[in-house]
Request: fold
Amino acid sequence: MSANATTSVRRSPLQSLDYSVVQQCMHCGLCLPTCPTYDATRLERNSPRGRIALMRAIADGELEATKTFGEEMYFCLGCLACMTACPAGVNYAELFEHARAEVEQSGALKSPRRDFIRAFALRWLFMDLKRLRLAGRALRLWQQLGLQTLIRRSGVLKLLPKRLRELEAVTPDIQRQFSADLIAPVTPAIGGRKKFRVAMLTGCAQDLVFSDINCDTVEVLRRNGCEVITPSEQHCCGSIFAHNGEWALAQELARKNIAQFPPGQFDAIITNAGGCGSHLKHFSKLLADDPAYRDRAKVWDAKVKDIHEWLVEIGIKRPQPIPSPLNGERGENAAGQSNTVSASIEPSHPSPSIPLPVEGRGKPAIEQRSDLVVTYHESCHLCHGQKITSEPRQLLRAVPNLKLVELPEANWCCGSAGVYNLVQPEMADDLLQRKLAHIQSTGAKIVATGNPGCLLQLINGAKQRGMKLRVVHPVTLLAGAYRREQ
Reply:
């Protein structure tokens, strides 16, 4: 074999992957009924089994990474439902990430437009969250000045191509204040009763769109005996890079996160985003060939905890039941929390009071009855990636006066899947409508879910469908119950 051929083999992501991972699939087909894309098309290539066959052919040198292969890898949601169903324990997540890296390295989908979008979004915007926050502030100003509403009402958008109109319609509402404005760098456990010292990861989109959820998360942690360390300047976790074939950038961000949050200094490193958490728990694989970081990465993996997982592990402090319904009481939303609360979490670092969002971005508050009826949608990477299913339900059942109604196909993807709803809008919308129909069937007016992508997908879908639905993170309901105790 020539030197050039050897180099080519070494550089190919699928050919350099441990072959035991590639050949582990038994082709039994038990994954087929769990795969949303196969369920929609009934085409073998759109199934996990079919995709793994294509990956193995490339690993064996029998197939080149063509445009067709690239399109197939990006048609996959990456929901990992196949991993839950697989009796052989195939690590589809690892195969999936290597396959997308193969697509990007080979240039199979290369085009000037695509290259520009990836360079702007991945290499420029998300590599430095200062830039992302700057873009968020510009978008927030656009929204607060009423320019977005004006443009929408003017009819000008009708002149744009259909795809651009669809993208504009799902533009998220940016929070008035980001996490650094709401959360002090150090938040003591309530009453000084410190049992644990934890770090809080504020995320990317989570920070811009759901900084109130980060605020609620810190509130819940401090009421459960945790001192919370929340640096104002943080880095992206890197999941968007790993899931889109940019392994070198994902590795760079993993190193930055480990350096900022030395895992040996904390009892836990907390994330409240299912998709981020699934990636954050696998830094040891990402940095396995890095002698300076691989040992620290192993400790990091063990310390990263999803908020639901951590609260159940340490024992949730159950809020006191409320004696009677709060119907008609002014200033309370559906979770029983004040529409305007002090955002100051740390007494020595007071922040200004801000109104918390009510009813999932502008929806009117739902009247609270003696039992708050809630259903729960499982984030794919929380349930299939992290295997966390019972813990969010335990958290919800800890909230007084809350009745949890199980959602049919709760662990079926809603169509968000990172940026899937932006690049595969038709399939994503089919999945969204299926999910919303199931939510309606429960009769619940509130749906809880533990991932920002799912939250946005369901908020936008309910709005477009005209549903009176509040979409919340489970931790927000718990935080509201704690506030009612006061």
